[in-house]
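Try this one yourself first.
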């Protein structure tokens, strides 16, 4: 690899890190009377997008953390009455995490507010430039294990 390519890759990773930190670091997201962290937000979005809910294994893969870490995050959302656990109808060993009625009733507005909040990072880009950025990022060599990134 050439020195110029290494420098470009270093700059790219720094910029991508800055974008992600700008979107989430230190930011808390209000959901009704609760304030959620970035991992809790990711869980809500993931669960909301899964018909029939998500398993702890699915959530652990998406967040790239252990199932134990997911359990702690889910426990905090259960305490807030935002998600619930239920046995999988096909496999009693699997627990499905789904949104509660309370969370479902507030999720649409929360989603809108969330994207308004994080969009400030991209305000200088046109819709076409955002499409181009998505296209370029989709061309990267993302491992198949990163399921969330490969949609």
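Now uncover the answer:
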């Amino acid at each position: 690899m050439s020195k110029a390519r290494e420098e470009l890759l270093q700059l790219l990773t720094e910029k991508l890190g800055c974008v992600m930190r700008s979107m989430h670091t230190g930011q808390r997201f209000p959901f009704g009377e609760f304030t959620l962290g970035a991992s809790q937000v990711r869980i809500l979005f993931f669960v909301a997008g899964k018909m029939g809910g998500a398993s702890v294994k699915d959530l652990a893969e998406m967040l790239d953390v252990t199932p134990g870490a997911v359990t702690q995050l889910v426990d905090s959302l259960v305490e807030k009455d935002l998600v619930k656990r239920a046995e999988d109808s096909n496999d009693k060993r699997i627990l499905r995490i789904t949104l509660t009625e309370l969370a479902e009733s507030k999720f649409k507005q929360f989603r809108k507010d969330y994207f308004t909040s994080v969009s400030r990072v991209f305000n200088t880009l046109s819709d076409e430039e955002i499409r181009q950025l998505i296209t370029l990022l989709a061309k990267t060599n993302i491992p198949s294990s990163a399921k969330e990134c490969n949609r």
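Discussion: The mean pLDDT is 87. Residues 3-24 form the longest helix (22 residues).
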